[in-house]
Design a protein that fits this description.
It is a single chain. Strand 5 and strand 6 form a beta hairpin. The strands form three sheets. This protein has a six-stranded mixed β-sheet with strand order 2-1-3-7-8-9, with helices on both faces. Strands 4-5-6 form a three-stranded antiparallel β-sheet. Strands 10-11 form a two-stranded antiparallel ribbon. By secondary structure, the protein is an alpha/beta fold. It contains 26 helices and eleven strands.
């Protein structure tokens, strides 16, 4: 405490060459935060020996793309002592002031660039003003709550993308929330590695929004630092338009404490800033200058934590990225062998390894095989992968990417894992699309199409998967995706033809589904006569499909048949559900309102499949 008091006294003394400070703002959604802080600092600068500049670096008129604007901020040569990044946060920042997103992967990649790394190291305080910017904390005790499900948040936020000014797709959200909820490589440690000398302030659930005056957060934080420094708040509010000299001086000291860098023996100053941040979210600590929101977190800098593993994990991650970028196989092997030597490193590098492998495999690059051969030696990797398949914190698209890596690692498929994935896919594809704007419904439909494509690409769709899905009466968008991918769902062209017929005859089919099926039919290696007959049968199936509440276990579709010169009742019973596929549980307000008739049909289907009493 003696060191702390000395440091604070030092900050208040006039200096011949006083150090100036800069707070850099990067506001993706709410420009009020920058404006209020600048107004506050203008008052403090009237009395502070250390001048404090406040600058906004996301200017939509100049550069609306946030990742380009962030790069421009680094290249500008501006030294940021503090950085405030604010906006809607899903694992990436976005908002109405931006065209695009600022992703965590981007920040990690650019911080590994030797040219830019010094800029990240100079920042002493980082405010991450958005929901779940520091992850969600430990969720082991509450694993099944919806708030800890990546798929739940994908649908929840996806239904409000337009209102929030976000430009991500549902597929982007799936990946981002998988990142946000990751317990092996927590979001908080990733930000700490990107900004190693910075105190980090953020939120673990919903952060204050515009309606709750989120722009006041920074000022409230300074008020609580001032309170901890002198056992009471300054006489005047930080929101005052006319601060007295005494109050302004007290607030200025608080700001300097937050923005300064400290040596190892000055940890008290860091802890003071951390405690003050936590206090400004707890109304039970003080009735003044708080949000009624305890879902916040703060960390002292990584550089003062003594956590060697985290420091090394950052170096390894940068080395992996550099090895792939330069196609340097020796560096890649060295990085992978370092991970093998220290099992703790795998938790932090796991996602990078999977992503690098899948990217290399897509490019047919030899590094994909190098990664697999080295990682086969890791004793816990297969177990870690297995845990991802059952985790609600991993979104469905991310699960399929992990499974692609798992198959390459084990050199075989896993029926149990495929059933887990298929069950989740059925759960998503059998829901109605969300109500809302055309754009929202289109984005949701595109997401479901991506799921179907990923299922096919990763060869997780068994021969009986499509018929099983059809019994749940999927909507038009799903039927179109099924038709587009019908060739991958059957072993023979005649099988594809039959599959198209069933898709077109589904209750929610339409002219669009028929048109898609016709396009696929033309690509099949069938005779012209067979194609013509199949086309007639599909049209008949569309015209005679049952209503949404009719039989789903056998669809009696009149088929045009040359042999009898008329119609023939054709019956297509669905195959039994593969053993191990779980029963989807009805959940309200996912992909639109809860449709009781639809959920009743789902329950009816599974009851009969599993002979439930």
């Amino acid at each position: 405490m003696k060191t702390l008091l000395f440091t604070l006294s030092f900050l208040l003394l006039p200096m011949a060459e006083a150090k100036d400070f800069t707070i850099c703002y990067f506001s993706l959604n709410n420009e009020k935060e920058y404006g209020l802080t600048k107004k506050f600092m203008n008052q403090l600068n009237k009395v502070s020996t250390h001048k404090i500049a406040v600058k906004e670096f996301l200017i939509p008129e100049t550069e609306p793309n946030p990742e380009k604007a962030f790069t421009n901020m680094i290249k500008s040569g501006e030294k940021c002592d503090g950085l405030v990044v604010s906006g809607h946060h899903t694992g990436a920042f976005g908002g109405k002031r931006a065209k695009g997103k600022l992703s965590l992967d981007f920040l990690e990649k650019i911080s590994c660039n030797p040219e830019y790394a010094p800029w990240f190291k100079q920042i002493n305080a980082l405010w991450l003003q958005g929901c779940r910017t520091l992850g969600v904390g430990d969720i082991e005790t509450e694993p099944n709550q919806e708030q800890f499900s990546a798929d739940f948040h994908t649908e929840r936020v996806g239904n409000d993308l337009e209102a929030d000014g976000l430009e991500q797709s549902f597929a982007d959200l799936d990946m981002e929330f998988s990142t946000t909820l990751d317990q092996d490589n927590p979001l908080s440690t990733r930000y700490m590695r990107i900004f190693p000398n910075s105190k980090v302030f953020g939120w673990t659930k919903s952060a204050p929004g515009e309606k709750t005056k989120s722009e006041r957060s920074f000022l409230y934080h300074m008020a609580h630092i001032a309170r901890l420094m002198q056992k009471s708040f300054p006489e005047e509010s930080p929101l005052s338009d006319n601060l007295s000299t005494q109050s302004a001086s007290q607030f200025a000291s608080a700001v300097l404490v937050a923005l300064s860098k400290y040596e190892q023996n000055e940890r008290g100053c860091e802890e003071l800033s951390v405690d003050a941040w936590l206090n400004h979210g707890h109304v039970n600590v003080s009735q003044k200058y708080t949000f009624d929101n305890s879902d916040l977190k703060a960390f002292a800098p990584l550089s003062s934590s003594g956590d060697r593993i985290l420091f090394e994990a950052k170096k390894i991650d940068c080395l992996l990225k550099e090895a792939i970028r330069l196609n340097d196989k020796d560096k890649l092997v060295y990085a992978l062998d370092t991970i093998l030597a220290q099992p703790d490193f795998l938790r932090y590098s796991f996602n990078s390894i999977v992503d690098l492998h899948n990217e290399a495999k897509a490019k047919k690059d030899a590094t994909a095989e190098i990664i697999i051969e080295r990682m086969k030696l890791h004793p816990t990797l297969a177990t870690q992968l297995q845990s991802k398949f059952t985790s609600e914190q991993v979104g469905i698209l991310r699960k399929m990417e992990f499974y692609a890596f798992y198959k390459a690692l084990m050199n075989q498929k896993d029926d149990k894992v495929e059933r887990i994935i298929q069950s989740k896919v059925i759960d998503i594809l059998s829901k109605p699309l969300p109500e809302g704007s055309d754009r929202t419904r289109t984005l949701a439909a595109n997401y479901r199409a991506t799921i179907v494509q990923s299922l096919i690409k990763n060869r997780i769709s068994s021969i009986d998967f499509f018929p099983l899905l059809l019994t749940l009466e999927p909507q038009e968008d799903v039927l179109i995706s099924m038709a587009r991918n019908a060739q991958a769902s059957a072993y023979t062209d005649t099988g594809v033809r039959d599959s198209l017929l069933k898709i077109v005859g589904s209750p929610n089919s339409s002219e669009k589904v028929l048109a898609t099926a016709e396009k696929i039919l033309k690509k099949l290696k069938l005779s012209d006569e067979e194609k013509a007959l199949a086309s007639q049968n599909m049209l008949a199936a569309l015209n005679n499909r049952p209503g949404p509440s009719e039989l789903i276990f056998s669809q009696n579709i009149p088929l045009q048949n040359e042999e009898n010169g008329g119609t023939l009742e054709g019956e297509f019973p669905p195959p039994p559900a593969p053993a191990g596929i779980r029963i989807p549980k009805p959940r309200p307000k996912l992909f639109g309102r809860n449709n009781e008739n639809h959920q009743g049909r789902v329950r009816n289907f599974w009851d009969q499949i599993f002979r439930r009493p």
